[in-house]
Amino acid sequence: MATIKIKQTGSPIRRKSDQRATLIGLGLNKMHRVSELQDSPEVRGMIRKVQHMVEVVEG
């Protein structure tokens, strides 16, 4: 199955608790951390929820 790499570019400070939880679920929670996950609709939805704090490095 395909994988997707995402990098955190925004801080979770002063964000809603559900957005913080989404970052933790993606394997992120600190600035500039990179996580490689399976490319699935669930992961895509999580990325969309915090799209202002992450960027896709490779797809």
UniProtKB/TrEMBL annotation:
<dbReference type="GO" id="GO:0015934">
    <property type="term" value="C:large ribosomal subunit"/>
</dbReference>
<dbReference type="GO" id="GO:0003735">
    <property type="term" value="F:structural constituent of ribosome"/>
</dbReference>
<dbReference type="Pfam" id="PF00327">
    <property type="entry name" value="Ribosomal_L30"/>
</dbReference>
<feature type="domain" description="Large ribosomal subunit protein uL30-like ferredoxin-like fold">
    <location>
        <begin position="4"/>
        <end position="54"/>
    </location>
</feature>
<keyword id="KW-0687">Ribonucleoprotein</keyword>
<dbReference type="InterPro" id="IPR005996">
    <property type="entry name" value="Ribosomal_uL30_bac-type"/>
</dbReference>
<dbReference type="InterPro" id="IPR036919">
    <property type="entry name" value="Ribo_uL30_ferredoxin-like_sf"/>
</dbReference>
<protein>
    <recommendedName>
        <fullName>Large ribosomal subunit protein uL30</fullName>
    </recommendedName>
</protein>
<comment type="similarity">
    <text>Belongs to the universal ribosomal protein uL30 family.</text>
</comment>
<keyword id="KW-0689">Ribosomal protein</keyword>
<dbReference type="InterPro" id="IPR016082">
    <property type="entry name" value="Ribosomal_uL30_ferredoxin-like"/>
</dbReference>
<dbReference type="GO" id="GO:0006412">
    <property type="term" value="P:translation"/>
</dbReference>
<comment type="subunit">
    <text>Part of the 50S ribosomal subunit.</text>
</comment>
